């Protein structure tokens, strides 16, 4: 071996050893300060409930406070962009879903980020979708609602459906419902599920195909809203009192759900991602977290290894982009 080659190998070995020591030190020192859990919707909605169910247990795992920050607007993209503008050091974690990271960039032309700018660290929960209606709508089932909506469309007064913003999953569901049934409907966007629900209670909007939460059970029992169906294939224990969408005659195949996960910027160092992944995974096994998610009718996610998490996000991105294409979603 020549002298130059030997020196090169020695320097290379030292460089890689230094990288290993730096990575180890990085993992040991993280987190060095409180971690912000960015919720891209106003307080009071299902996303906020999930975050406040998880943050204390996650704080115990990380050894630092996990502070929930609510920043709604532009279908969650304002909160997402704030995470991208922060350092890629793992101290700001984004609680996201296909709404903000996959669909919003397809629907809002001012959004410049892509879903690939984020890295999914771990799944948290899957939300059931409820077919919610205002209390005074003259329908007590999905089929009765569709008959009413068809009648109103013919009279030039199409029913309205709420969403958490243009291009959101709930916007796509409403548009898909309209196209599937051939019934004209009018989209009414909101900044989050909480304000959408408030207008539904006030009968300012006709329906909301939205993420089911325990609060809707109380509103239903008090006669403040109607729950026409759950968009589930199978009956879940937490929502067994409601009809399944598969039980309707006109929308048997209209079954959907949506997942929530915790994300960081894609260039966050691997040792930090590994620390976060372990902390979030361990948090999912916390009985308090599991009970809290179940109480909110969220289905606790099955923890995935880090490699499988990446594939799940890539597969989800492809799936939701296909849905957007099927309804010819155009950026506005």
If you had to describe this structure to a student in words, what would you say it looks like?
The protein is an alpha/beta fold and 332 residues long. The chain has 2 domains: 26-126 and 258-326, D-Maltodextrin-Binding Protein, domain 2 (3-Layer(aba) Sandwich); 128-257, Periplasmic binding protein-like II (D-Maltodextrin-Binding Protein, domain 2), CATH 3.40.190. The protein has helices at residues 3-29, 46-62, 77-85, 98-107, 142-154, 169-181, 193-201, 214-221, 270-284, 287-295, 306-326; strands at residues 35-39, 66-70, 92-96, 118-134, 159-163, 185-189, 207-211, 225-230, 257-265, 298-300. Strands 1, 2, 3, 4, 5, 6, 7, 8, 9 and 10 form a 10-stranded mixed β-sheet that branches. Strand 1, helix 2 and strand 2 (66-70) form a beta-alpha-beta unit. The termini are far apart. Keywords: Receptor, Signal.
Characteristics of this structure?
alpha/beta; D-Maltodextrin-Binding Protein, domain 2; 2 domains; 11 helices
Indicate the topology.
Blueprint: H1 3-29, E1 35-39, H2 46-62, E2 66-70, H3 77-85, E3 92-96, H4 98-107, E4 118-134, H5 142-154, E5 159-163, H6 169-181, E6 185-189, H7 193-201, E7 207-211, H8 214-221, E8 225-230, E9 257-265, H9 270-284, H10 287-295, E10 298-300, H11 306-326
Parallel strand pairs: 1-2, 1-3, 5-6, 5-7
Antiparallel strand pairs: 3-9, 4-7, 4-8, 4-9, 4-10
Helix pairs in contact: 1-9, 2-9, 2-10, 4-11
CATH class of the largest domain: Alpha Beta
* Structure annotation, total helices: 11
* Overall morphology: globular
What is the CATH topology of the largest domain?
A: D-Maltodextrin-Binding Protein, domain 2
Main sheet properties: 10 strands, mixed
User: Percentage of helical residues?
Assistant: 40-55%
Along the chain, the helix and strand elements come as HEHEHEHEHEHEHEHEEHHEH
Q: Determine Rg (CA atoms, Å).
A: 22 Å
Keywords: Receptor, Signal
Protein name: Tripartite-type tricarboxylate transporter receptor subunit TctC
Signal peptide: 1-27
InterPro entries: BUG, Bug_dom1
């Amino acid at each position: 071996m020549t002298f130059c080659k030997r020196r090169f190998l020695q320097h290379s070995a030292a460089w890689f050893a230094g990288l290993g020591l730096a990575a180890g030190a990085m993992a040991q020192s993280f987190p060095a300060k409180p971690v912000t859990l960015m919720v891209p919707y106003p307080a009071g909605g299902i996303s906020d409930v999930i975050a406040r169910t998880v943050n204390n247990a996650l704080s115990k795992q990380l050894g630092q406070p996990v502070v929930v920050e609510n920043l709604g607007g532009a279908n969650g993209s304002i909160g997402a962009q704030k995470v991208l503008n922060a350092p890629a050091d793992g101290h700001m974690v984004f609680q996201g879903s296909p709404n903000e990271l996959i669909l919003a960039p397809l629907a809002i032309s001012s959004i410049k980020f892509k879903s690939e700018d984020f890295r999914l660290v771990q799944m948290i929960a899957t939300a059931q979708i409820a077919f919610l209606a205002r209390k005074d709508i003259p329908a007590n089932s999905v089929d009765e609602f569709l008959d009413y909506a068809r009648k109103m469309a013919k009279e030039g007064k199409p029913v309205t459906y709420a969403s958490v913003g243009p291009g959101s999953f709930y916007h796509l569901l409403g548009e898909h419902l309209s196209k599937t049934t051939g019934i004209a409907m009018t989209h009414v966007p909101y900044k989050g599920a909480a304000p959408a629900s408030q207008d539904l209670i006030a009968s300012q909007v006709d329906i909301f195909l939205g993420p089911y939460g325990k609060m809707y059970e109380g509103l239903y029992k008090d006669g403040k809203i109607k729950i026409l169906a759950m968009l589930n294939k199978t009956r879940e224990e937490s929502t067994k009192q409601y009809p399944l969408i598969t039980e309707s005659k006109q929308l048997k195949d209209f079954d959907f759900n949506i997942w929530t996960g915790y994300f960081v910027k894609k260039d966050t160092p691997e040792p930090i991602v590994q620390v976060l992944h372990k902390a979030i995974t361990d948090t999912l096994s916390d009985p308090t977290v599991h009970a809290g998610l179940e109480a909110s009718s969220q289905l606790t996610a099955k923890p995935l290894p880090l490699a499988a998490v990446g594939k799940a996000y890539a597969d989800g991105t492809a799936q939701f982009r296909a849905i957007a294409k099927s309804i010819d979603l155009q950026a506005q």
